[in-house]
What we know:
The chain is an alpha+beta fold. The chain is built from seven helices and eleven strands. The chain is elongated.
Amino acid sequence: MSVKAWENGPSYIDLPGSMNAYTAPSIPDPEAVRHLDGAREAMAWLQNALIGWQPGGDPLIADLSRLDASNRELVNQVLGEGEVSVSATNPVNARIQESVLTGVWRTLYYDEQDQLACDLVEVAPVPHIVSLATAQETEVDSKGNGDMPDVISALPILVELAAAREKYIADGTEHAINLSLLPMSDEELGFIDERLGPGPIEFLSQAYGKCQVCSTGVSNIWWTKHYNSMGKLILNLLEVVDVPAVVAAAPEDIADSAQRLEEILAPYWNDEG
């Protein structure tokens, strides 16, 4: 088989200032690609995966690494590039692009020499690597002393985050702190950033304007920043959650993607062709 289902290079998007509507991808004439059986097999797998995916279930993943260039190019043309891109730096190096089908992700893993090691297509609210890479055991460092007058307002934020994270782990209660409403100095924001530490995951989204969502060095704590069309920060959030909803595909959107893929593939590889 050319496509291996897992049971266990897209470019980053440019972020526009307004929400984009779904646009079907541009793909070649059916007669020109009807012989590409590897792409046909991949799309058949994907259609079944979209229909079979269940909310709360494991991500459905297929390995496309063994497809040749022509078959892989057709897969890329069918899937196109959607509104969300992701980079992951730990425990592995990955670059990920959501397709025009919400909840369908193209995931490229690279080795230490930055050579492509694995080429996947995934069906899930977020790529599988996101859950693996954000499983740190680090705690929030909220300790302070009297020698920190320039960051005095930052310490209560860290205390609140630590308590909110403990509650989230205990009972799943999500929490958000809107830093845009607080009189925080650049020094205080930098102090919070330093205390939380850098995380391995960064999302860039254009679904509702420009949005950057970064994991921190503490699991379940994310830093979400929304920008207007002029690049000005308009909403600055710290979120205690599994993954912020702004970058996760909703179950109903994944269901819609199953219908959209059926429409895209309608002229291709039918029994009469």
